[in-house]
């Protein structure tokens, strides 16, 4: 069989040519934009980069950011300045970021509560979480369920048994409404259908002293916050909130292994975020260089002192994780009737 080719008419030819011209007209700007974005990534940064953090000087998360800034400064060949703006639930730092450069020279260090808890705790939030483009998580920090060293509670199951027998009488503490320690315990209540009293302390040191002397039945704490009293023999760890045991405390069971609900998991984490709408090539470069910095052995060594774990993931997977965390905490906050308004 022989294929036959029919020459198009002049009218049809002109229509085809016009269509091709329109397609080319749309394609050229796209190609130009892609080239411009790639060029911007090659040239970026053109001046010092500022990382704005809501954490105070000397805190664990702030120390991580300073170490990462040193690594990024070597990679970028420009100063990377960490600017501390603590206070007001992190809103001072966020406002400074929102008023800053939109070209990637200003980056934001966010706590997990800013993305997954505060949107459900405030009716009128002074920022829109969609204004941020989280790049990668810097670390994950699981907690330990702590109680007094001489406490009668041998495991999490003992605490839950008493909570069921005496609804509303057991107490636990944290340093504010809506922080991971508070919400993590509220999640435990939700998963076990128990009710306990939340006591707020002004200082974290007072909180764990309250656990040690029996003012509080228990509290969640990290290696950094509760570790000193644990090492001094004044409090004990009876469970960890990770899905696996912590490598620094292999003898401490998970909450599930200690008599708590299966699947219970609570962690704190922070992230570096860029402004919304940053050219993809620049955002990709920041992600790539941040991954390189996080892979430095010195980072792992520093994390071990804080009890932090690396949180390897992709930007897309991290975005899905943030959405799932937001949904989880929305339900917990609603059940606990927690509010910061």
Automatic annotation (TrEMBL):
Keywords: Plasmid, Receptor, Signal. InterPro entries: BUG, Bug_dom1, TAT_signal. Residues 1-32 form the signal peptide. It holds the Pfam family TctC. The keyword Signal applies. It comes from the Bacteria. Belongs to the UPF0065 (bug) family. This is Tripartite tricarboxylate transporter substrate binding protein. It comes from Sphaerotilus sulfidivorans.
């Amino acid at each position: 069989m022989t294929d036959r080719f029919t020459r198009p008419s002049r009218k049809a030819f002109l229509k085809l040519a016009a269509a091709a011209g329109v397609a080319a007209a749309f394609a050229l700007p796209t190609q130009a934009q892609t080239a411009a974005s790639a060029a911007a990534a090659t040239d970026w940064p053109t001046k010092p980069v500022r990382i704005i953090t809501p954490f105070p000087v000397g805190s664990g998360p702030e120390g991580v950011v300073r170490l990462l800034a040193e690594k990024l400064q070597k990679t970028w060949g420009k100063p990377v300045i960490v600017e501390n703006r603590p206070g007001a639930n992190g809103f001072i730092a966020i406002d400074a970021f929102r008023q800053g450069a939109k070209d990637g020279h200003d980056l934001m260090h966010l706590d997990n509560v800013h993305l997954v808890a505060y949107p459900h705790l405030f009716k009128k939030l002074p920022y829109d979480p969609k204004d941020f483009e989280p790049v990668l998580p810097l670390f994950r920090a699981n907690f330990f369920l702590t109680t007094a060293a001489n406490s009668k509670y041998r495991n999490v199951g003992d605490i839950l048994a008493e909570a069921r027998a005496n609804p509303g009488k057991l107490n636990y503490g944290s340093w504010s409404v809506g922080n991971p320690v508070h919400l993590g315990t509220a999640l435990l209540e939700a998963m076990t259908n128990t009710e306990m009293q939340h006591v707020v302390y002004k200082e974290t040191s007072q909180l764990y002293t309250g656990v040690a002397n029996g003012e509080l039945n228990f509290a969640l704490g990290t290696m950094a916050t509760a570790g000193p009293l644990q090492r001094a023999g004044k409090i004990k760890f009876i469970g960890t909130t990770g899905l696996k045991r912590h490598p620094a405390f292999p003898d401490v069971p998970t909450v599930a292994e200690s008599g708590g609900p299966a699947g219970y998991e609570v962690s704190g984490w922070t992230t570096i975020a860029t402004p919304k709408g940053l050219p993809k090539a620049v955002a990709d470069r920041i992600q790539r260089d941040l991954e390189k910095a996080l892979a430095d052995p010195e980072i792992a060594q520093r994390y071990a002192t804080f009890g932090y774990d690396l949180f390897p993931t992709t930007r897309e997977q991290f975005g899905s994780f943030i959405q799932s965390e937001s949904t989880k905490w929305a339900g917990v906050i609603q059940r606990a009737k927690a509010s910061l308004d």
